[in-house]
């Protein structure tokens, strides 16, 4: 498996993986991904099996401490010198799940945040994934009052690095 950051040429593959991994109400659109890639392609960690995109993690950097729904839609809120690495999506094609690939990409995002001296990482997840992210050191801060993305109750989780 090969891991690298994204380029605009990855747009179709990224949108296809997202559509397979999330319900339509929660999935980012191809246009949203195009905007994200323009603003923060280096904050997409992509995993390939040969030349097939099988998994990715994406998110931007900000000084805002909490993940909000506005962030998903406004890629221009990315601030490369920000304190917090947000994680918007953790995607693995169903046929590639349960092999540790998502974990490798999450660890890559954590390592990048450490290298860039970020205060930490923030993500939101459904109740059934709280224990999964806790394995990486993320602490559950409870249900978010700032994100109801896709009409879902999300737990905000934070990994403090410094």
Features:
162 residues; alpha+beta; Aminopeptidase; 4-stranded antiparallel sheet; globular
CATH class: Alpha Beta
* Neighbour order of strands in the largest sheet: 4-5-7-9-8
- Structural class comes to alpha+beta
In CATH, the homologous superfamily goes by the name Gcn5-related N-acetyltransferase (GNAT)
Protein described:
The protein has helices spanning 11-21, 30-40, 69-73, 101-115, 130-134, and strands spanning 2-5, 44-49, 52-58, 61-62, 84-87, 89-92, 120-125, 139-143, 155-160. It has 162 residues and is of the alpha+beta class. Strands 4-5-7-9-8 form a 5-stranded mixed beta sheet. Strands 1-2-3-6 form a 4-stranded antiparallel beta sheet, with helices on both faces.
Layout of helices and strands:
Blueprint: E1 2-5, H1 11-21, H2 30-40, E2 44-49, E3 52-58, E4 61-62, H3 69-73, E5 84-87, E6 89-92, H4 101-115, E7 120-125, H5 130-134, E8 139-143, E9 155-160
Parallel strand pairs: 5-7
Antiparallel strand pairs: 1-2, 2-3, 3-6, 4-5, 7-9, 8-9
Brief summary of the model shown:
This protein is an alpha+beta fold and 162 residues long. 29% of the residues lie in helices and 27% in strands. It has five helices and nine strands; from the N terminus they run βααβββαββαβαββ.
């Amino acid at each position: 498996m090969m891991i690298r950051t994204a380029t605009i040429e990855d747009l179709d593959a990224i949108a296809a993986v997202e559509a397979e991994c999330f319900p339509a109400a929660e999935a980012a659109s191809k246009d949203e991904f195009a905007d994200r890639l323009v603003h923060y392609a280096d904050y997409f960690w992509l995993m390939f099996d040969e030349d097939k995109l099988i998994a990715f993690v994406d998110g931007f950097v900000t000084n805002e401490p909490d993940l909000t729904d506005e962030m998903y839609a406004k890629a221009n809120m990315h601030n490369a010198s920000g304190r917090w690495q947000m994680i918007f999506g953790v995607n693995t094609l169903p046929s590639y799940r349960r092999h540790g690939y998502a974990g490798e990409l999450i660890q890559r995002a954590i390592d990048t945040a450490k290298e860039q001296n970020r205060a930490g990482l923030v993500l939101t997840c459904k109740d059934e994934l709280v224990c999964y992210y806790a394995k990486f050191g993320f602490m559950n801060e409870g249900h978010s009052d700032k994100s109801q993305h896709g009409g879902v109750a999300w737990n905000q989780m934070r990994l403090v690095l410094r």
